[in-house]
């Protein structure tokens, strides 16, 4: 039996093992005690009863003991029979599993070493992987299997199972031709066996490595059609069955040297030359014997035979493949430089959409033509720095543009290595645009627009009633779009989300007329399966590693291209044939010629709009929106224009949106108004750094609401702390009463608006604003606020806003932390630029609104009104000031209330004390709360020391009105009334009074 000549199949199955041997049963022992016990019992019973019948029980012991022994032996025999039956069944299962694994092992072997019959039946290119003579299959035989069974044999069943596992039937017998092979037998059969060996050798060996030396006769003339003419090794065919020609020089009588091999044919084994490593004695079409040199016995073999017509057809087919690959007898040396004028003039395709054929270089014997429609639909191009990859892309684009008008093909060029690669052809009317990595936002939106381009093309095809762009009528204005991305790897690394867009184009682009040409220095591992499966066209210029070459073109030839051969590469047009070629070099003359030829053609349709303007006036809103590049229906919440949107909302009875800018929707190829509908969307918060345009955005929103509901519908904080406090209190009072008459409250700098206020007022103002934010929607009221940092808002205010406008932030991290899309962050974004609902936004630049004018100061406090009680945080200072006006105030000190109470009948009486003095004067404080005008100079501590609790409320808030900064105001509480703001006399007032006025 021949030893195995191929590697074992891959797999991780559990190992096989011999079934366990059934052990011989142990004979049961005789139960002496069980037999003796009844005898002893019977004797004891007889001695007691003196009955002879009791002695009969003594017989039961021996009888039961013998029965037990017999039953044990019967049970042992039954167990052995059952175990043997289970072992036989285990052997059957083992043989079935061995048969399955033998079948898989044989199939794997035949896949690795196909027979000549399999080769000629497959319409595939030759493998051509060996650089010399490779092992060939002589036929099928029983060989030693790699399968092994664990365990040591103990009987014939075990030995039969092991023998069955070792024998692999119907497996290929593979031998090395270096030692020579001889065939002996009937002439037709040995020639068929030799043809099988020759075809297998021609399939495995490279044409430039191996040559064939066959007799120049009619029988073997077909061998000359092989493209092999290498010098590394020669396979000599000696047919001793041919008639001897008089005067012919006899061939060699021994096998060739190690650099080659010999295949000898004879009708008798004795006629074969000596020293052959293998001899096959053929007895019939399915029977033969393989004899190895030095072996005593032979191996039965089913020989591998091949017919003459099949061999000749395969030789012609392999020659055609070699011709295209630049390898065969007519192969020529490729030039170092190929210019456009060296290629045949492109045939004008007219208005046909069925082809994008273009000549991109030279191969042995002619021009290399690639058609993205017929061969594609997509292509992958690889090439390291200096390999000529960018020049090849230029040449391909230019040659397609030269053969097809802009009405039928356009190019979107994406360059992620600086932006200069496609500059020579930028002026062609076919070029829709060039996108570079110098502007990340523009590059991303251009590629995202391709998703909308696919939808636009789907609508055109659906409207025309066709399924493929090639079936469109000539008058339909829709051409093919070729998207060329240089350095695809860099683009994906920078914009991870674009990979799904490219994969979608790869999957649906064929019928829609969108083609991809993806170029990268190392595409290996970057392109997903969905892209590679739809990109049959492969081009590899010089790459650095064999793995990169294998990943692109399935051969390591591109890794061996010399560095001084830019433009030299390997191309596979999708048919599996790898062709060495020299790329054409684009010159200015060729570009100018194409530009002049199509100068009168209209520019190609651009698949994306210009970026948003850096400044947007309300009057320019319609012009900035432009006409959509595609007729896609408006998305929910988007409207065609500010006016039309409001009209549609009003006519339908729904709330009217407020337009405050425009958003960019590249994936829909359009711009749409940025609109906010307070009744639907809730409150709005504008976040952004100082100078980012927060105030402008709020002004645009305020102007929109004023235009819809009138100037009185909008309120704005910013007229001073006391006024803002009162405004919030009035709004909360109205909201609780369900009678809010206003539509919008605008609060700028919300994160710092209440920071200077006293702590209790700051917390109360936050609470009042939170109440308005939570309850305003049901009353038709909303808040639009601005802040630099949203996380600084206290009281959980941020969670009460339903919509957010994100303007410029200091960093991408802060933008993401604020809830924005970090990928849309721009370091140098202009004022008013940001994002709205995860899309880029430009806010309308409205004229600055009129500044809010703070109201005048409150009335001056009246000090000559009978009994006046003043509680002051600086009592001595106020005493001095009052005395300067000519008044005679009474100083209240702790324990001095008796003296003051004695003078209550005299009016006017002005009593001045600090909080401690009034708190210690219980009776006087009670009289003052009932009859006096209470004045408070200081803070809430002073107010609560004397003022009635009922007086300290501002609407719904249990606090008196907020006083202005500077200490020039005080609270005044009349008996039974609420606290009022009053102006305290200043030094100017004092001078006025002293002068006698």
Automatic annotation (TrEMBL):
Keywords: ATP-binding, Membrane, Nucleotide-binding, Transmembrane, Transmembrane helix. The chain crosses the membrane at residues 29-46, 53-70. InterPro entries: AAA+_ATPase, FtsK/SpoIIIE/SftA, FtsK_dom, P-loop_NTPase. Residues 627-656 have a biased composition (Low complexity). SUPFAM superfamilies: P-loop containing nucleoside triphosphate hydrolases (SSF52540). Residues 627-661 are annotated as: Disordered. Residues 365-550 form the FtsK domain. ATP binds at residues 383-390. This is FtsK domain-containing protein. The lineage of its organism: Bacteria, Bacillati, Actinomycetota, Actinomycetes, Micrococcales.
